Amino acid sequence: MKDDKLLRWVLTFYTALVFLFVFAPIAASLVFSFNSDRFPTIPLGSFTTDWYVKAFSNPEVWDAALRSLIVSSVTAVIATAIGFSAAYTDYRYDFVGKKAFLILSLLPPTIPLIILALAMLGWLSMFNASGMTISIIIAHTVLCAPFAMAVIRLRLNQMDPNLEPAAWNLGASEWVTMKSVVIPFTLPSIIASLCLTAAVSFDEFAVAWFVSGLNKTVPVVILEILTGNIDPQVNAIGTAVFLVSITLVVIAQVLVLRPAKKPEAA
Amino acid sequence: MTTRPTTKPDTYAIAWRLPLIIWQGLFFVGPLLFMVAMSFFLVKNYRMEVAFQFSNWQRMLSKDFFWDAYFFTLWLALLATIITSLVAFPASYFLAFKASERLRRWAIFFLIIPFFTSYLVRIFAWQVILAQSGVINAGLSYLGLGPWQMLNTQFGTMVGYLVLCLPLAVILQTFSLANIDKRLVEAAHNLGCGRLRTVFTVVIPLAKTGLVVAAVFCFILSFGDFVAPYYLGGSKPPTLSIMIVDTSKSGQQWPRAAVVAITMILTLLVVAFSAIGFAYRKRGK
Predict the structure, then answer these.
(1) Does residue A126 belong to the interface with chain B, where contact is any CB pair within 8 Å?
(2) Which of A169, B21, B28, B51 has the fewest CB atoms nearer than 10 Å to its CB?
């Protein structure tokens, strides 16, 4: 029994180390962003907000931030709409070629981003559609729709299969049932999906880098600063970006996790 | 249970089916097929011309630097898969068997966070931490050790791959371990099977499918990542993903980059299918 206790402590400690490894870079970039040294080390330099001042007085950063905001919000809306329709199709219908449909709807995240980026660049260039903000939106929607579908499909799992037929028996058409039964029921997952897909799009850099041309998003600006030299501005921009993403992810997780406990509510 | 066969497809049914088919057909299947075609195109005066020539394939596949990069990338991805799986396992074992339901839920909640935060920023933080005068070497110097060269080495690349893969590996492993029948583990203990032996002869075989799926994801992620080998590994020698960036970004040689990309996809398909085949193979005595 004593042995068991020891093992538990060792495993607890080990798991804590794994979490330390996962969160160290996030904490480090927060600390370094307020640190005066250009090449941070221990002991730390003095407290400064210079990197934030420098980053936020750069018009390129603002330009990119605005573009990222547009790209991620438009992507979130389109990807969630597509994801919803795919999830609903999977929930309700069985048809010839459904397997192919599901593969098509879940495959994109398994293709390495750099390959997707190249393919997208070639394809969009053929239609003279690369190098624009809309090119990024198109590519990001491809990437985000599977996430949207997964999140909404999970929620649909909790919906009583008799709910829709009940509405039809009461005389509602399919479209009316969709509007007043299915959509209200899945609303938490729709909002969660909007947040998650926005966060994915907000952080994606490989595809955006290839297809954006001169219309850079924030991660592309970060990538270009990184290619230059060690520049703590990245920590300041990164911390700001992190705050945006984390807010979206936490909202999404609360919405996804909470209704899981009480499916009959909402 | 939830899907019911319906009669003939009507407007309503089709309306929900079409958005995904149209969008992913136009912007996912289209680009990938086009990339295959593109690998036969020619580049003249920095402009791509439609053609059907095997010259790109010949040029790339006959070069030693391509095969060097190919086997180097394969090696790095395999190494990353093994290291990540091993590093993740004890933590997943703890979360699945020793931790309370509540703790497990919170742990998963926290492990999902890195997915949606900037991978670039995390890699940059590691670049600073691992640098010659960085946090780790400064700490080591207090102990009278170092400095160690960690940046621009394979070690650096591996740290990057761990950053990328570890959270997902722990999540997937934890799910597969938590799903196995605890009574079987108890039975093994009651029959006098030691703890380590139980792990290897009962727990791991029972969770095999999930463990292999986690490993496959690690392989896919590290095989295709260009950030870790570039910014932490120093890009010497280059990996296939760095080669795609270099040939398409600086040389405008999209067709040649397409050749690299297609070989990567074929490799991933072979690896994924053989691993899944292995995972679902009947357990022989």
Answers:
(1) yes
(2) A169
